[in-house]
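Field reference: "sequence" (input) and "structure" (output). Example, Large ribosomal subunit protein uL1:
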Amino acid sequence: MPKQTKKEQVRAKLDNEKLYTVDEALATLREHKAKFDETVEVAMNLGVDPRHADQQVRGMVSLPSGTGKDVKVAVFARGDNAEKATAAGADKVGAEDLMEDMQAGNLDYDRVIATPDMMGVVGRLGKVLGPKGLMPNPKLGTVTPNVEQAVKDAKGGQVEFRVEKQGIIHSGLGKLSFSDDALKQNFKALTDAVVKAKPTGAKGKYVRKVTLTSSMGPGLKMDLSEIEGA
């Protein structure tokens, strides 16, 4: 009989039917933590069919305690706006030169921001940025005249959430080294934002299942009473 991995041993000890509070889930993940600083992640199964336009769930939320991750930001801007974006901490700022760089395959960014006047240039990158979910979008605040604030938000813990084909939203909440309070604040901010983003076409129960996990940890089913509006 093959020897069980540590992950399998952990799962074998857990009650698969238990519904966890956030405090209980974090305590359990800490009990089984790995030797590196794992990312704490949440998965939300929603009662939507993303194939329909009126059942899309997408938005931005600022996590109060940050993400613990170094977010790489590229900005399409010229003149004063380019200088402001650089001063705010953008990793790459440019115009046609940045477009050509991206067309050549240099796409190692977590967020792409653009001023409205640059969308003529950015529009040519639809087939490059679109599949990666990086296309600037006014509804998400990534097409904005205020690039300085957009860069600060991106660097300071703002994350995008977007429902996948199976009706699931995945998002990181920070690192396991964060305090319980910090992770709980981030969990509440994200779940509140997803609940508020309920689309008009969603019928029946909206938030159907929520799972909290860490990079190497078990997936723990959450008690939905922990989530306001669910």
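The longest helix spans residues 180-196.
The chain is about 30% helix and 20% strand.
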